[in-house]
Design a protein that fits this description.
This protein is mainly alpha-helical and 150 residues long. 75% of the residues lie in helices and 0% in strands. The chain is built from six helices and no strands. The longest helix has 26 residues.
Amino acid sequence: MQRSISNQNSLTPLLYAALFIIYTALSGIYLFLPPLFALLYLFFAKALKREDVFSLFLVAICLLFFEAQNSYMLFSTIIYFAFIHRYIVPKIKQNFNCNVCVNFSIAFLVYIGFFLFFSLLSNIFLLPMPSIDYYVLYYIAVEFLILSLL
């Protein structure tokens, strides 16, 4: 008897999520590995666009592991991604015609914007201020290249 499953391709996202969790642990040890934060935003945006709940759930799990690895507040990345996806990225896509400019601005916005967002949360909840280092520029450049290839 054959089963009819609505989501036939559910093993591939699970494999990607498992590989990302392993990669997140390695990027915490080796600083030359970028955390693939902008790539997670891209997957988050695609899951929202397709209205794929399973992929969105897996991206949320990956974001929670990213938050735990980097000692961020719980659900802060998900809230930030939802905010920029709803309000900021449509304005960027409306103002820029070239795809390269959009990819660079998304990579820049994900890293620098999240630092500013987390600084705001730190002020609100009286937490220590986060620090930013020069690795972020390297991460933006590498993830911009990755986004340009996709």
